[in-house]
Amino acid sequence: MIEDAGFEAHWQLYRRSETRLPRPRAAARAPRRVEGLRPLLDAGAYDAVVLDAWGVLNLGDVPIPAAREAFAALRGTGLAVRVVSNDAGCDPEESAVRHTRRGFPVSPDEIVFGLDLLGLTLARLGVPSARCALIAPRPAPRAAWTQEMIDLGPAADGVAFLSTVGFGEREYERLAALLRERARPLVVCNPDIVSPEPEGIAVEPGYYAHRLADELGITPFFLGKPFPEIYDRLLGTLPGVRPERVLCVGDTLHTDVLGGAAAGMDTLLVESGFFRGESLERRCAEAGLLPTWLAAHL
Predict the structure, then answer these.
(1) Is pLDDT larger for residue 26 or for residue 269?
(2) Both 216 and 151 in a single domain?
(3) Which of 80-89, 112-121, 192-201, 245-254 is the least confident region?
(4) Is the overall model pTM greater than 0.90, yes or no?
(5) 170, 187, 222 — which closes off a domain?
(6) Are residues 201 and 122 located together in one domain of the fold?
(7) Which residue segment(s) compose the domain that 205 sits in?
(8) Domain boundary residue, one of 173, 199, 222
(9) Where does residue 78 fall: left (phi above 0), alpha (psi -120 to 50 degrees), or beta otherwise?
């Protein structure tokens, strides 16, 4: 669903969510402006570069032109590259095909999703897949966990929220009524509140999850940025790489910057996505979230 409420309204949604997010580490200094990724690659300070997709590489299905050249330069360094995304709408194999088609060739094993943690999370919560309701178009990704999930209804012992495609106010009221009736774990596989599109902003599962938390007093289980489990998984794909030698690139303070910094990594915030037309310095100061670097684009 495309939202046209304007940047300030979306920004305030993120600000109100801060009490549920990881606590940021104090930044050692104010962020510095750089001309994209290339100067940081030339400095040799990093062993791995972690890229967000939406707002860094692409907007919807449209590649960000400046990102293609930067990505090619990154590939030329031989550094480890990972795409870490809150997208819960496809498997890594499909995602790799999409990125490659847009001009960003990656392999499935270079992509890390919060969705990857769903199976373990449901097991830890004691919710069998066959007793978990699925909020996502079918067939859903990660079929090993999602193909036997049921539709939203009283028989569900938990809820896995992957996507807002086809989800609106009517579906929200059904979900809220179900959670009021009986306490059930709500597992949110895309913690984003909104995401940038070529025209406008799309509302994501995090928007509804924080709304439910405010209205019902529940504590959703978030799988993805900025929460620490996804960074543990990321580092598991980078054996021998220390967090301080990882650079996380993103377009959102409350996901990419907060999550990377909380995990002990350097961060680069770009204004080609969520912050289009905004002052990065002003918004960083407002939220008290300071990336290591700022740039117009990748």
Answers:
(1) 269
(2) yes
(3) 192-201
(4) yes
(5) 222
(6) yes
(7) 116-222
(8) 222
(9) left
> What token pair was written down for 279?
């002052």
Region 163-187: mean pLDDT is: 96
Count of domains for the chain: 2
**Residues 17 and 153 placed together within one structural domain of the fold:** no
Chain segment 269-294, per-residue pLDDT in tens: 999 999 999 999 999 999 999 999 99
CATH for 43: 3.40.50.1000
